[in-house]
Write a structure and sequence with these properties.
Two copies of one chain form a homodimer. Chain A is of the alpha/beta class. The first copy, chain A, contains 13 helices and eleven strands. Chain A has an eleven-stranded mixed β-sheet with strand order 1-3-2-4-6-5-10-11-9-7-8, with helices on both faces.
């Protein structure tokens, strides 16, 4: 095991920095960290891989999203750990270590934005910017007890962010306080929109509840009761088969749809580079990459059609003023080192991605809120709205949760 | 001047290929070419730059869009010339030559999808796939007398397409026949949508007409009369100030908005690489790149906000069932070698991009149709619809033009 930097007690940082704001703005006084797949000028971007880091020069320019935040008054305090090639949801990096989950120190932080979550959960940063394809912001936010947002696909510029899965990947934010999530996200969305329409309906995706542990389901119901009391809006259950075709299963969003699109796109970005350069790979990534190598790209092209149909069905269903709610992850954070059997890995990943793929395939904005506690550990409750309704969603979350 | 491949009489091809279809499909019997910034497995992608080509290994996988077309029954017949780093609208490459404009052989083909246009215009390919940010499909289609489409931003997967300007760049199609443009585009859009709503209104963007040469304006009016006769729908003039704020000018879409966003994103993609590696650059590109180097990235961040507001204004205005029409380019193709003074370059680029930035900033699908002839040379007439209304637009174009 190679450790590439001196970790602090959180293990979150690849590099401590102190980049002052470009100018004063709404984010004055806030400090943020940057996931190590997002460029910071003059500092190498590792993509979570020492081999990638060594093969690529330091960028000359900050990623646009970094410059947007610096120009809004925030200060960048460091570059933080990402899982290898950001291709993981667990946050256990062979090369950079496992950033500490401050709310559950014997458990994984979740990934791939593991350092983003750990740096904020430890109180060292007000917020962090990360990326999310299959859940890489939402999962660590859920498992570390933070707010997190995966915005609508392509609402935030990806210039200076390493290309990962162009039809799936997003830039987003994690924060300890809702107000900071809201402010930082609005700076990045750069919207001039008039105040969004009011919240009029809260749906609960029952299929996602069924995937979750029973204790998570119970905690969700208690949180929904509080939301109903606060808003006067009674959450209404909805089944995935009412959203897509009769007989459709939530699993379809992941299986033979988003998962295949992700794999095909990953082959074109990281895969081409790995196959040309044969770099040193971590053990866990190597296992996962075996599936990428064995992937039948042609047979999987039909998954693109399925993704498009699911996008259309879900976005036709989610009318303006509607949010849909579900547990962010089906479980609390697994114990560190417990994902050491194929069964454990498959159980964690398949169940988690069955839920996270819903917003992924539909390109929805999704906010995860740190509302649930199970066995003393945090789990997030997620709220999603139709594609491009990011500002509405942020307003609705404020209405529901204050 | 380095010539990297033996040109045929069109000068369009970097490499002749004969990649058979993956399977039979709707595109059976059609042959297509691929712009040289889109990956073909086992063949280096040059990005229009010999230095980039030499520094990067051949990709292991086809771009997803290439695989989609091969899986729909089409045959890939070659890799075709792109302008250096696709950062041009003229099609005069110092390294790969100037592909021949079959309809106006003493004139430029337009770029940066110059080889795409030339290969189709010469009848060697039924269609070609290219990319478009500032007009790189629409301009060569217009100047070479072809059909072309820039789809809605991010409707077609960019996996295996060299990252250029993530918030602006699209993959699209050029074709000699409308039917082929329609079929190939629908394969790439992979939509399961029900038949699109009918065309109910045709708007004409008068500001774009005013930017165009008088002879182009006259030709547009004649074409609109034929469309009115065919559809029974009388095109209605609309000013940009009715779409955006009162007093707004069409020029705003380019100036201090899309142009700055493009430059900032170009710094993060190509710029970082050029500044780290100091590669051999062509003279014309070097001149343009001087502006990129001198660009004030921080001062230009406000352009992102302007882009977002223009996106929202234009898409609020363009209701379902509405198309908006304007000349694709303000001029016919300039004579080869005539863009040799700063004045000539500025006149061609500024006027052209004042028009092309409209769909760019609003992320609209835009089809250019080879309907106009001025001084014996082709010019395109463009039709755009709201973001993500690609299938409606293809249907409306069929209704209007048959």
């Amino acid at each position: 095991m190679t450790r590439l930097s001196e970790p602090d007690h959180t293990g979150a940082f690849v590099e401590h920095l102190d980049l002052p704001p470009h100018r004063s703005g709404p984010l004055d006084g806030l400090g943020f960290t940057v996931k190590d797949n997002i460029d910071i000028a003059g500092h190498k971007t590792s993509y979570g891989s020492p081999a990638w880091r060594d093969a690529h020069p330091a960028p000359k320019h900050n990623a646009l999203c970094v410059d947007q935040l610096l120009a809004a008054g925030a200060r960048c305090i460091g570059k933080v750990v990402a899982d290898e090639f950001t291709y993981s949801l667990d946050g256990e990096s062979q090369f950079y270590g496992t950033p500490r989950n401050a709310k559950a120190p014997d458990r994984i932080p979740g990934g791939s934005s593991s350092g983003s979550a750990a740096s904020v959960a430890a109180g060292l940063a007000d917020f962090s910017i990360g990326t999310d394809s299959g859940g890489s912001i939402r999962v660590p936010a859920s498992l570390c007890g933070l707010w997190g947002i995966r915005p609508s696909l392509h609402r935030i510029s990806e210039a200076g962010v390493l290309p990962f899965m162009p039809s799936v990947s997003t830039v987003g934010v994690l924060a300890a306080r809702r107000e900071h999530l809201d402010m930082a996200t609005r700076m990045l969305l750069r919207s001039g929109k008039a105040p969004a329409r009011p919240l009029r309906q809260i749906l609960v995706l029952t299929d996602a509840l069924e995937v979750a542990d029973e204790a998570v389901r119970t905690a969700v119901q208690a949180a929904l009761t509080r939301i109903a009391d606060r808003t006067g809006i009674t959450p209404e259950p909805v089944r995935f088969s009412q959203i897509a075709d009769a007989g459709a299963s939530l699993r379809e969003c992941n299986e033979n749809a988003l998962r295949d699109l992700q794999t095909a796109e990953f082959q074109s970005t990281v895969g081409n580079w790995i196959e040309a350069h044969n770099p040193e790979l971590g053990f866990t990534f190597s296992m996962a990459y075996g599936n990428v190598l064995a992937f039948d790209r042609i047979a999987a092209l039909d998954s693109l059609d399925r993704c498009e149909r699911l996008f259309e069905a879900i976005n036709s269903f989610l009318e303006p003023g509607v949010v849909i709610c579900f547990p962010t992850t089906p479980v609390i954070a697994p114990q560190k080192g417990s994902l050491n059997s194929l069964e454990a890995v498959i159980d964690f990943y398949d169940r988690t991605m069955t839920i996270t793929a819903f917003s992924g395939v539909a390109r929805l904005p999704e906010v995860t809120a740190p509302l649930l506690t199970v066995d003393g550990c945090p789990v997030g409750l997620s709220f999603a709205a139709a594609h491009y309704q990011d500002e509405f969603l942020l307003g609705a979350v404020k209405t529901m949760l204050g």
